[in-house]
Design brief:
heterodimer; A: Uridine Diphospho-n-acetylenolpyruvylglucosamine Reductase, domain 2; Uridine Diphospho-n-acetylenolpyruvylglucosamine Reductase, domain 3; five-stranded antiparallel β-sheet; 12 helices; globular; B: alpha+beta; Alpha-D-Glucose-1,6-Bisphosphate, Chain A, domain 4; 11 helices; 30% helix
């Protein structure tokens, strides 16, 4: 488990990092920040980049900033720092980050790295989609903003060009009429999910305004679905917006089943068959949507 | 910064409170740098791709998997390994608890478990026992089945609700600044000394020394006879078994070499000696020394010599505080202690002989392995007899 040799460059300016990436031999340059997904790939020699461009010493990429609307997490900001400092501002991140790898991984791994790596079982891409986050990508032609829904194109594939760097991600700051739910099932806590969901619900006086839910570990990329109609019908059927979570969960069983049939397209593996993943998504989606709806009422 | 794939990059960081520098290719992980370049083999390597957690260390205050970090990324970082957590005679509460709860069987996962639980309890003091299995999931154990490990961690969590104590051995840990090729050209200890560039600054750690030596030897020579030898550094150096003066930088600063043979182990330390005090009235001398063995190890120390009259002859009082790292430190404190004491006794005997006009029997040549081993066995046996006597 030793990586094949590679060259290493550590620029201190973003512009230089982009140049380095562009000039790496035979397009074999690869960005490294926390390296928690990349180093295993190197160790198993699944990837053999000629040059690693370390972006952790680029000053502007080490910041986490907040304005009225957004939490902006730059590319070298580690997951554990985001978990400590931003879990209140963006509660869905706070719910999901404890599931991202193990504590020891989050100490070094970055949020942007998780997005750039785009593992279909990873938590951060799903959270970014449910929150309608914006990913900033910088390349030789400058910066561009890509919505999370458009960012992921397949298994470990994104719209990022080989000469581009994911430089930041902006998550909208939570509003008081929003609630969240997050759950996943893995063989052991911290491993990649067999299946999981990240839900956000916005409601006004009990009426569902938005209900995006993203399932992960079920397809080649995270699957975002709008469940606002189904959730509204479930709440209406109970005739009581303040119905307990368990009742709303039960009322969501059918639409959650339909959604699971739709989003789970993976062929299954040794950890779980397609049918098992569908069942997980059905159960988790109904429960987390109900939970998100209930917590959206509390803030209003 | 730019490093080619086949080039080595010099990386400086702090390991267990001490500065360390390694020269590594970009692909070398922190776990390999710690083990192969610094000789800190307490950090174990299991899967080498971030699954098993054996290699868990603390980097800049947070636990991380050393196999998933490139050493070249860690310039300026502060690293704590399991060696830094505690000392054999001053265990960290977590180590003591692991021992009390029988939380290890083969011991392979123990460094990872210790460092991961240290990180957990440092950041989440007072965490409850039922939360531990999820929180400790980053390190795998293949023999005790976790129960005793969780019990040990829960016990410490309960005992220190306000936060656990910091590492207990950061400042003089067993650091082995091996040459980065992991070997060096020491051969049988007769390596060439590079042209000396002049005296180096000597930094003696402030922490507790590895070995403290207090030897008082009664000798036949008079105080004045002894002082003549001590005042002549070159002659004094010849009295130290296996030692020789290589260069005199002036200002009472020297470059010296000392060879030690202990069974199959041959060490050859080369380094600086600075005499910082030399008082002809009280017949005392204080010197600082720092030396490296090219195949792995350092010795830093302060030596204080004082001669007092005693009857017809004198008493040589030697007090030394040695900070040792590397192979010699790996022998364990007690053996390093024995070796050092033995060398000092040989030194005072030779000093006495030289002062009285005899040729010292040890000058220049390394102390014989057989002789040293015999002495050690005898010394050990005598100490044992004394301990038994005291008990009676």
């Amino acid at each position: 488990m030793k990586a094949a040799p590679f060259a290493y460059v550590r620029p201190t300016r973003l512009q230089d990092a982009v140049t380095e990436l562009g000039s790496a031999q035979h397009g074999g340059g690869k960005v490294i920040a926390g390296g928690q997904s990349l180093v295993p790939v190197l160790a198993m020699r699944l990837g053999r980049p000629s040059t690693l461009v370390d972006i952790t010493r680029v000053e502007e990429l080490t910041h986490m900033t907040v304005d009225d609307q957004c939490l902006r997490v730059a590319a070298a900001v580690r997951q554990r720092r985001v978990q400590r400092e931003a879990s209140q501002l963006v509660p869905l991140l706070g719910l999901a980050l404890p599931w991202v790898g193990h504590r020891e991984i989050r100490s070094r791994g970055t949020v942007c790295g998780s997005l750039a790596h785009a593992d279909p079982s990873a938590e951060m891409p799903a959270v970014a989609m449910s929150l309608n986050a914006t990913v900033e990508v910088t390349g030789p032609n400058g910066r561009r903003q890509v919505s999370a829904a458009d960012f992921f194109t397949g298994a470990m594939a994104t719209v990022t060009e080989p000469t581009e760097i994911v430089t930041s991600v902006s998550f909208p700051i939570a509003s008081s009429d929003e609630g969240y739910g997050f759950a996943e099932i893995a063989r052991r806590h911290g491993d990649y999910a067999i299946a999981g969901v990240a839900a956000r619900v916005r409601s006004t006086s009990g009426a569902v305004v938005e209900a995006p839910i993203t399932s992960f570990g079920v397809s080649d990329k995270p699957q975002l679905r709008d469940m606002s109609g189904a959730l509204q019908r479930a709440v209406d059927s109970l005739g009581d917006p303040a119905a307990p979570t368990s009742e709303i969960t039960n009322a969501l069983e059918e639409p959650a089943h339909a959604m699971a049939e739709d989003v789970v397209t993976t062929a299954g593996d040794s950890h779980g068959s397609t049918a098992y993943r569908k069942r997980l998504v059905r159960v988790l989606a109904a429960r987390e949507l109900a939970r998100a709806y209930r917590s959206s009422l509390k803030g209003a | 910064m730019r490093v080619a794939a086949d080039e080595a990059v010099t990386v400086s960081f702090t390991v267990n409170g001490r500065p360390a520098t390694v020269q590594v290719a970009p692909r070398v992980t922190l776990s390999d740098a710690l083990r192969d370049h610094l000789g800190l083999t307490g950090t174990h390597i299991g899967c080498e791709h971030g699954v098993c957690g054996m290699c868990t260390v603390i980097v800049d205050g947070d636990a991380a998997r050393a196999c998933l970090l490139l050493a070249c990324q860690l310039e300026g970082s502060e690293i704590i390994t399991v060696e830094g957590l505690g000392k054999p005679d001053d265990l960290h509460p977590l180590q003591a608890s692991f021992s009390d709860h029988h939380a290890l069987q083969c011991g392979f996962c123990t460094p990872g478990m210790l460092m991961s639980s240290y990180d957990l309890l440092k950041h989440k003091p007072g965490i409850s026992a039922e939360d531990l299995p999820d929180q400790m999931s980053g390190v795998l154990c293949r023999c005790t089945g976790y129960r005793h490990i969780m019990d040990a961690v829960a016990d410490v969590s309960e005992s220190y609700p306000g936060g656990i104590p910091g590492p207990r051995n950061c400042g003089h840990a067993a650091l082995l600044p091996r040459t980065s090729t992991g070997g060096g050209s020491a051969g049988d200890g007769g390596h060439e000394i590079a042209a000396a560039e002049g005296p180096k600054e000597i930094h003696v750690p402030q922490s507790e020394p590895t070995v403290t030596i207090d030897v008082a030897s009664e000798v036949a020579a008079s105080v004045d006879e002894l002082w003549v030898v001590i005042d002549d550094t070159e002659r004094m150096a010849r009295c130290l078994p296996g030692a020789e003066l290589v260069d005199d930088f002036g200002d009472d600063k020297y470059l010296g070499r000392i060879q030690v043979a202990l069974g199959p182990v041959k060490l050859s330390f080369v380094g600086d000696i600075h005499v910082t005090e030399r008082d002809p009235d009280s017949h005392s001398l204080r010197a600082l020394a720092e030396a490296n063995d090219p195949s792995g190890g350092t010795v830093q120390g302060v030596v204080q010599l004082e001669i007092d009259p005693s009857g017809e002859g004198s008493i040589i009082n030697a007090h030394a505080e040695m900070h040792m790292t590397g192979r010699i430190a790996q022998f364990g404190r007690s053996l390093a202690d024995d070796v050092s004491n033995d060398m000092f006794n040989q030194f005072t005997a030779a000093l006495d002989a030289t002062a009285r006009g005899e040729e010292p029997e040890v000058g220049g040549a390394p102390p014989s392995a057989v002789k040293m081993a015999t002495r050690l066995v005898l010394a050990r046996a005598r100490a044992l007899v004394q301990r038994i006597k005291r008990k009676e």
